Amino acid sequence: MGSRREGRELALQALYSFDLNPMELRQSLVLFWEHNRAAPTVRDFAEQLVIGVAEHRDEIDRIIEEKSKNWSLGRMARIDLNILRIAVYELHYRSDIPKNVTINEAIEVAKKFGTEESAAFINGIIDEVASNVPDK
């Protein structure tokens, strides 16, 4: 597995943990890293994603809700929602990650951590979001 995939998976786990146990973000990350080990580059990338999603969460959630017809954020599985948040963050705020990489990575992470329907669900929403984002 590539270091960025590992970083995305750890970011997903950290965001999920933060959803279940809301606290100050830095404190949440300290606790998360006490129980999860990663190479410095993986950890750095994961933290960039977590902090980026947290800083832009309201805007990211608005974009997701806008593109997810018939699904409110409250009805979405927490894992699926956090995979979407990471992908939307990458699409809108990370010029160093190509669109197709973000889409493919979101689908692969969904296959590993989500339900049987997660990958298709995420693919549908991310395709909608990506269609409004210029190529990098």
TrEMBL record:
InterPro entries reported in the protein's UniProt record: NusB-like_sf, NusB_fam, NusB_RsmB_TIM44
Pfam families reported in the protein's UniProt record: NusB
Residues of the NusB/RsmB/TIM44 domain: 7-130
Keywords: RNA-binding, Transcription, Transcription antitermination, Transcription regulation
Chain coiled-coil ranges: none
Leader sequence residues: none
Origin superkingdom: Bacteria
NCBIfam families associated with the record: nusB
Function of the molecule: Involved in transcription antitermination. Required for transcription of ribosomal RNA (rRNA) genes. Binds specifically to the boxA antiterminator sequence of the ribosomal RNA (rrn) operons.
Classification via HAMAP family: NusB
Assigned protein family: Belongs to the NusB family.
Annotated protein name in UniProt: Transcription antitermination protein NusB
